[in-house]
Amino acid sequence: MAFTTHNQSSPYVSPWTVRFRLKLLVWEYCWLLFCAWTPKPLNAWRLLWLRAFGARLSGVPFVHQRARIAMPWNLEMRHRACLGDRANAYSLGEICVEEDATVAQ
């Protein structure tokens, strides 16, 4: 895996493009509007939204409605992996939750 560095011309300039920041904003709003309020049995609905934003999900992982995922396109979850209540997947880089693993607060 190759890591990239972002040069900043000023401490007040973001290293991320406006397009990237808009993508983050759309993701946050979609999660809040369509997923954060759903009950546990609607896990498939949350997985659908994660896949729509680029998460790589194999099998049937579980994502709690109060889990926080910064960038779903950097998230990979295998069968029966679990992001629990209030777990924070601060995925600035690649995150892979292996099969039968649980990430909790």
Task: Please tell me how large the radius of gyration is.
Answer: 15 Å
Low-confidence stretches: none
Please tally the β strands and state the result: 8
Count of helical segments? 2
Cα distance spanning the termini:
27 Å
Summary of the model, kept short:
It contains two helices and eight strands; from the N terminus they run H-H-E-E-E-E-E-E-E-E. The protein is an alpha/beta fold.
Write the layout of secondary structure elements.
Blueprint (H helix, E strand, L loop, with lengths): L17 H17 L8 H10 L3 E2 L4 E2 L4 E2 L5 E3 L4 E2 L4 E2 L5 E3 L4 E2 L2
Report what the structure shows.
The chain has a domain at 37-103. The chain is 26% helix and 17% strand. It has helices spanning 18-34, 43-52; strands spanning 56-57, 62-63, 68-69, 75-77, 82-83, 88-89, 95-97, 102-103. The strands form three sheets. The chain has a three-stranded parallel sheet with strand order 1-4-7, covered by helices on one side. Strands 2-5-8 form a three-stranded parallel sheet. A two-stranded parallel sheet has the order 3-6. The protein is globular, with a radius of gyration of 15 Å. It starts with 17 loop residues before the first helix and ends with a strand. The model has no long low-confidence stretch (mean pLDDT 93).
